[in-house]
Amino acid sequence: MTGSAKATVFIDNERVIVTEYRFQPGDNTGWHRHGHDYVVVPLMDGKVKLLTKDGETFAEMKKGAPYFRKEGVEHDVINANEGEYAFIEIELK
Questions:
Q1: Segment 30-57, tens digit of pLDDT
Q2: Cα-flanking dihedrals φ and ψ of residue 69, to 5°?
Q3: pLDDT tens figures, 10-29
Q4: Which stretches within the chain are classed as H helix?
Q5: How far apart are the C-alpha atoms of 25 and 28, rounded to whole Å?
């Protein structure tokens, strides 16, 4: 990924990758495809803009409320808040 969000990898082993993403307003992950199933755990309430091949949508995120996505998701995730936003991504290998 080549976006402007700050990615910090906490765990990367044979079973899982755990990464924290921190976004300033307008920061993004960069266009990417998920090669594994994954879980995202928001660290705060907020909103993200999702760019996909089908266009753009917005997702309301709730602090501590995880969600699961299957492998193959292709998108760019952009902070749509006026302040910093962050989440933890747990990618299952």
A1: 999 999 999 999 999 999 999 999 999 9
A2: -135, 145
A3: 999 999 999 999 999 999 99
A4: none
A5: 9
Token duo for residue 45: 């309430």
d(CA 13, CA 59): 30
Nearest partner of 77 among 51, 57, 39, 40, judged by Cα: 51
Question: Does the reported pTM lie above 0.85?
Answer: yes
Examine residue 1 and state whether it is found in any structural domain, yes or no.
no
Q: Report the CATH number at residue 21.
A: 2.60.120.10
The rounded distance, in Å, linking the Cα atoms of 72 and 63 is 25
Domain extent for 23: 6-92
Strands (DSSP E) found in the chain: 6-12, 16-23, 32-33, 38-42, 46-52, 55-61, 67-69, 74-79, 85-92
